[in-house]
Specification:
Elements (H helix, E strand, L loop, with lengths): L4 E6 L6 H13 L2 E7 L10 H11 L6 E6 L3 H7 L4 E5 L3 H17 L4 E5 L10 H9 L10 H11 L2
The structure holds adenosine-5'-diphosphate (ADP).
Adenosine-5'-diphosphate binds next to helix 1 and strand 4.
């Protein structure tokens, strides 16, 4: 069977159980999955690039065909560089659709041979995003069920409690 390499791009600030759900599904479907942090100089993330690389590596350690990386610039250029034929995005709700649809059509125009594939997480993660986790964790609210233990530890260190 043809080898299919998929890139899963995102900010992952920090990675949540929703992201992990998508990564595990992708790992079952594709030969190789590269989870890649989009480094964007306009955004000021809570965690540095190195911290996010470490966190993603740690929580995907059990998945043999998952690699972790980062990139700057256009996603299609990066996908070409790592020989990926698929880009993965998570779809939580209709509200994600318009933006994702526009991005996917734009990327398709830039490189028609790379397909975007949308995966839906378990419904219990449909409302979950990183900014919610950051906001709750900042006030020491209970975020156990949204993130792996290692990420909880890192959030506690970051917020100093
Ligand atoms: P971005 O800044 O590109 O939205 P994120 O790290 O927030 O980066 O998300 C990366 C991808 O993961 C996006 O496709 C997003 O829709 C998806 N995603 C984020 N949270 C979840 C979740 N709880 N369930 C499923 N997919 C998710």
């Amino acid at each position: 069977m043809k080898k299919i390499t998929a890139v899963y791009p995102g900010t992952f600030d920090p990675i949540t159980n929703g992201h992990l759900d998508i990564i595990e599904r992708a790992s079952d479907l594709f030969s190789e999955v590269i989870v890649s942090i989009a480094v964007n100089s306009n955004k000021k993330p809570l965690f540095t690039e190195d911290e996010r690389l470490d966190m993603i590596r740690n929580v995907t350690d059990h998945l043999d065909n998952v690699k972790v990386d980062s990139f700057k610039g256009l996603l299609v250029n990066y996908a070409e560089k790592v020989n990926a034929n698929v880009m993965i995005r998570g779809l939580r709700a209709i509200s994600d659709f318009e933006y994702e649809f526009q991005m996917s059509l734009t990327n398709k125009r830039l490189n028609p041979s790379i397909n975007t594939i949308f995966l839906m997480p378990n419904e219990k993660y449909t409302y979950l995003n990183s900014s919610l986790v950051r906001e709750l964790a900042q006030y020491n609210a209970n975020v156990n069920e949204f993130i792996p233990d290692y990420i909880l530890k890192k959030l506690k260190e970051k917020f100093g409690y």
